[in-house]
Write a structure and sequence with these properties.
about 350 residues; 12 helices; about 35% helix; globular
Amino acid sequence: MRNSKTRKLEGLGYELPLEYFASKPYPELLERIMDQSSRLKISEVGAAEVEALRGRVKKGKVDFQENEDVIISGVDGGSNGKSCEGIYVGVASALAYTSPLKVLKDESPTSDGSVVLIDAEDGEQQWLSLFERYLTVRVAANVAINRRPDWLLLDGGLILRPHYLRAIEGIEEVYDEGFPSYTSYEERLNSCLTEMVRLLELCRKLRIKILGVVKRPTSRLLAAKINSKHRDSVLLDRFLDVGEYVLLDAGENPVLRRYEEIAKKSVEIHVSYIKTSKSKGPIRVEFPAWVDPEEAMSLILADSDAITGVPIHIIRADSLVKIPKDTFKAVFSRLVWNNLHALEMLRPQRGEEFGPGV
């Protein structure tokens, strides 16, 4: 016979039925969301907007030209992280894949990576993203010096995203070969800006043509000029055919001002969009003033995948540099095992357990 204590615990509902744990929206909430999804209308790019572009931008055209002897390095970064009760744990990496245009084989890609512990009230993912960018620029400089490619293609723009300029309070502890170093966000930001300026100057001196490739552009440089609410890539998708490109003015940019403060001279970076695939919108390409636009667009077109529209060397670097969930889980599990004395710091914030769901 069950005692009164057992009956009391059962009465408090300690054994909850499955319906309490099933991931299922409340029926009335689900009905409301489904109803909205059937009624919402998204405005398309109008013919008038496309026509307005003709008076604002000039199209260029490059042909598909293969130079099998040209050497290309594609550089990409990757990261993954987890918010814990006492700290944010991240892993950041970068890799450069170097090969001729048509012989995609690199026996020893250049790479770097680190575990990052971030103690901040907010913005940890921005902090990790900034560190990933720092590693990417550092690996790009390494490959420029040691591999001397003809072209250096960075995944992401040469102009650091302005949102990185937002200040974040906290401390970052980076583990590099077992030696921790403590850095503030402002120090990390300045390091990244400085490394980018140095990379641009290094490539100029070594005559390496450097391009920043933004695979998923979201900027609206054209929108204000033609009074449109659409992104540049969406507008230009209706305006450009494969092989066609436009050059745009980067305009006033706070990041470029920071570059010039560091370099103590003018830093001129051009912006372009080129259509490289029938099935995808144009990609954004950034390059310094000393790189010939037509030569750059011709190289991008020759190296780009026909389906994704992204340069093959960046795709290859991306495939090798990613920190997938399972890899991060293994890193995190090892970190927990070696720090059982500080388990309260490493308990995941979002209810996961130290098991398959980590």
